[in-house]
Design a protein that fits this description.
heterodimer; A: alpha+beta; two-stranded antiparallel sheet; rod-shaped; B: five-stranded parallel sheet; 5 helices; globular
């Protein structure tokens, strides 16, 4: 957004521009008295002049058209065309100027008038286009070019400029006699001087427009003001010289080379600035990344500390749960030891087995890496050992085996009811299923991604009906309740023993 | 009455210590004393010279049962049977070479099997 109030930088730039324009004008005026003197013989002056102007103005044209493609503002396109035209006309000048490349005459064999017309039309065209660009920028009422028309605009403009340059060269070379004379006895004709004066006036109008209307605009126009001043100075000195190879004419060539270099220098300066800005931005980015990395490392360390604290806390909780379960077991043990009633004593011992199963779940939780998952195979293995030990299976020739069991991860919500249910089923088989030895086989398999099957099979000789009658009411209620909690289905088979199968869904949270 | 051996029970929960003592007596063992701190455990082990020390790992006042067990083993060469609710790897690592470990809650028959194994060793 543009503001009417100039910044300090803009004010300083305008003052410097005015000072440079005035300084250039003063130097030109100071050189006027000696402009008509014969200049020194400088071999290759014209090729040097043309080469300097050609390279810098074509490069400047390319950079201006590139800037136009980005900003899509008409004045930049017109200014780019001005420098393209100037670069192309420099070639025409080299080809038609007498003695520039070959010792006598020009490469194209054109007469002296051709070179004069090409030169004056070169100047005029450049001045017209440059001042038009300044006028468009000063008017500031134009809409930006549509993005899809940028390439087309550049292409058409370049073609138009090239056609104009070629047409001027052809006409000036082929039919010079049809044009009024610009040279008389190696001196400028009055028409030449008049055209020269008109061009200088046009350039002066452009310079004044920049300093008065565009003083707060882009730095580009400040540099353009200098370039136009140097071109105007070149014309004034050349005109004052009166003809070719005078001091004024040679100084004019030098001034034009300087003029051609000015906008190119502006772009170099912009490039250097952008490099500096890029370097600063890179430094800031690296500093910002380093700071953010340090913050993340600190945050990560804090999180790790919190996780460690949470783990410690959970382990402490599980430890206290297990200690309390041992305490409950001790109380039950006291009561059982002093109980005379055999049924009551058996009931208390059953409760102790269930408490032991709960303790084993917490034991497995404490051993898991994340303190949240229970390995069901390890859990059932330990549970079987404890149940067998409590029931004295070695004396009764009974074996408990754990087969076809996957290392199934489980949560506390699944492990507790499943552990208690296994305890009930195995205890039931041990208490009511055997008369003289046998085997109990336990299997836990994940039969599909979302289903698990627990099987407790035994080879006990006691008939199923007899077992069912022997089962206490509490055992039956516990099994029913735990199956319901697991959302499972329980089936029983009798075929030379008993086989209980529980199929239940694997919790979604564990999938 | 003749016993199969004597046991020093080191446990800071009084009810658990009493329950363990009852269970050990039912197994035909005598309980020579109970202690709930590391210092008392070391002193009583020296006084009674039991056949085995049943040692909890977390003791009253933050005392460490593993350090007490190491001291008893070093001074008197009495075998140790650890009984703990803690099953953290770093804790269990520290008990290596000192004696077997039983994890709470423990059933009487498990306790008997473990004590018998220590006495036979």
């Amino acid at each position: 957004m543009r503001t009417d109030r100039p910044s300090d930088e803009q004010t300083t730039r305008r003052r410097l521009t005015v000072a440079a324009v005035c300084g250039c004008a003063l130097v030109s005026v100071a050189l006027l008295p000696i402009a008509a003197r014969p200049g020194p013989e400088i071999a290759g002056l014209v090729p040097f002049f043309v080469a300097g102007v050609l390279v810098t103005e074509l490069a400047t044209s390319y950079l201006l058209l590139d800037l136009f493609a980005e900003a899509r503002r008409w004045p930049l396109l017109v200014l780019g065309c001005a420098y393209l035209y100037s670069g192309l006309m420099a070639i025409a000048h080299l080809l038609t100027f007498p003695g520039a490349v070959v010792a006598s005459g020009s490469i194209l064999g054109a007469p002296e008038q051709s070179a004069a017309w090409i030169f004056i039309l070169w100047l005029t065209g450049y001045a017209l286009l440059a001042v038009t660009a300044v006028g468009l920028e000063a008017f500031d009422g134009h809409a930006p070019v549509a993005p899809e028309k940028v390439r087309q605009s550049i292409g058409l403009s370049c073609v138009a400029v090239a056609i104009a340059a070629i047409a001027i060269t052809v006409v000036a070379t082929m039919v010079p006699e049809a044009l009024p004379a610009l040279m008389r006895d190696s001196r400028w004709s009055p028409l030449n001087l008049a055209l020269n004066f008109a061009v200088v006036s046009l350039l002066a109008a452009g310079i004044i427009a920049i300093l008065s209307k565009l003083r707060q605009r882009e730095e580009l126009y400040s540099w353009l003001a200098l370039a136009l001043t140097a071109t105007a100075a070149a014309n004034v000195l050349s005109g004052a010289g009166g003809g070719r190879h005078t001091l004024g004419w040679e100084l004019g060539r030098l001034s034009w080379v300087i003029s051609a270099c000015l906008l190119f220098f502006y772009f170099l300066r912009q490039f250097a600035r952008q490099q500096t800005l890029l370097s600063h931005a890179n430094e800031m980015l690296e500093r910002s990344v380093a700071e953010r990395t340090a913050e993340l490392q600190t945050s990560n360390a804090d999180l790790q500390r919190l996780v460690a604290e949470r783990s410690l806390l959970l382990r402490e909780v599980y430890h206290r749960v297990k200690n309390n379960l041992q305490l409950v077991d001790s109380l039950l043990g006291f009561q059982s030891a002093r109980m005379q009633d055999a049924v009551g004593k058996t009931g208390l011992d059953d409760i102790r087995r269930r408490v032991n199963a709960l303790g084993l779940v917490h034991h497995q939780l404490m051993q898991s890496a994340d303190l949240a998952r229970v390995d069901m195979r390890a859990f059932l293995s330990e549970l079987c050992t404890n149940l067998g030990s409590a029931a004295g299976i070695s004396e009764r020739a009974i074996r408990i085996t754990l087969s076809e069991t996957d290392p199934l991860p489980s949560s506390l919500d699944m492990a507790v009811p499943l552990g208690l249910l296994t305890t009930e089923l195995v205890s039931h088989a041990l208490k009511h299923g055997f008369t003289n030895g046998g085997t109990i086989s336990i299997a836990l398999r994940r039969v599909s991604p979302d289903a698990v099957v627990l099987t407790v099979a035994d080879t006990g000789a006691v008939e199923p009906d007899q077992r069912a009658r022997a089962a206490s009411d509490i055992e039956t209620r516990l099994v029913t309740g735990l199956v319901a909690q697991l959302r499972g289905e329980l089936t029983t088979e009798c075929n030379g023993g008993a086989k209980v199968t529980l199929r239940f869904p694997y919790p979604e949270a564990l999938l | 009455m003749t016993t199969r051996g004597s046991v020093l029970v080191v446990e800071d929960e009084a009810l658990i210590a009493m329950s363990l003592s009852d269970a050990l007596r039912e197994m035909g063992l005598s309980v020579c004393a109970t202690a709930d701190t590391a210092r008392d455990a070391i002193t009583l082990a020296g006084e009674h010279r039991p056949s085995v020390v049943l040692m909890d790992i977390r003791l009253r006042g933050g005392d460490d049962g593993v350090d007490a067990a190491r001291e008893i083993r070093h001074r008197h060469g009495i075998p140790i049977l650890f009984l703990t609710g803690s099953c953290e790897a770093e804790v269990l690592d520290r008990t290596k070479g000192l004696g077997p470990v039983l994890i709470k809650p423990v059933l009487p028959l498990q306790l008997q099997a473990a004590v018998d194994a220590v006495l036979r060793a």
